[in-house]
């Protein structure tokens, strides 16, 4: 079985030499262990932060060890009575085709949804969107919602929840393909192709003549600056991520208009989905019902094979990825 390892801490955008792909033996499970064949793994921008040795809410990745990250797979052999071959399980044990681990490191998932949904709208990605929009931004009737990186994993779920609750939603994404996806598939009221706009603030003013009441920030920088300018008094900003800065080697110049937060009495609140796990059961019930009703689809970009993991990771930053970025490792 193969695994992707971090060998060196990237400077700026990661390059191939920062990683290796190693062949490892996967032992039969001892008592209390399970052996799992991974089916899907997810690429998350937060992994870029963990490749650096700066302290964050999760510790840095260790060098010459498998990249950590969520995956779903199938139990192939079990030394634990709670698991049987064929069980679908979620883990965060990383970028590896297969592994043997203590049974308490994996969690069972129902076959009611497609396996990769547990890495997308029904996984941490979806929970991030759900708690950020409904609890942190505290979405209320009539709010106009602006979402950045709107066609991405988290963004596409935020957009779908806001639309099914009847809101006017404006999304920003890079390029005509993503803009078309936002208006035609997710049925947003307006899409902004930020790569084609000389001024994001002017583009947002045109798309939201009535201003915005909620901003779901995945990008930071110029997107946050535009949202501060166009926000209505007492708007709420859920600060989810700032991907425009993850590969930066210099501090960001924008936003330069943070005073607007004072004069408009804005509420800007950063959040970490892991701090909101108490909403997980309700979240899973809601997204499962929305999916069954056809109101929640999984937008995804799929790369085949562990050899493509780094291409998939790059796709988070270079505009290639639309929806949840996934690597398929095997067939269910
Ligand atoms: P996405 O699927 O959204 O992938 C990243 C997207 O970001 C790309 O599709 C790309 O879209 C966009 N992007 C990349 N670089 C830039 C840039 N310089 N300016 C503008 N847009 C850019 O990833 P996720 O859904 O996994 O994550 C989205 C955000 O949510 C990230 O900021 C992530 O860190 C954050 N997050 C936060 C969590 C929390 O607990 N707070 C948990 C999970 C994720 P485009 O082509 O449109 O540029």
Automatic annotation (TrEMBL):
Pfam short name (any one)? ADH_N_2
- Asked whether the UniProt record includes Cytoplasm among its keywords, one would answer no
Q: Which residues form the Enoyl reductase (ER) domain?
A: 14-327
| Residues passing through the membrane, by range | 117-138
> What organism is this sequence from?
Alterirhizorhabdus solaris
The protein's name: NADP-dependent oxidoreductase
Signal sequence region: none
What Gene Ontology molecular function terms does this protein carry?
oxidoreductase activity, acting on the CH-CH group of donors, NAD or NADP as acceptor
Q: Which domain of life is it from?
A: Bacteria
The alphabetical list of record keywords is:
Membrane, Oxidoreductase, Transmembrane, Transmembrane helix
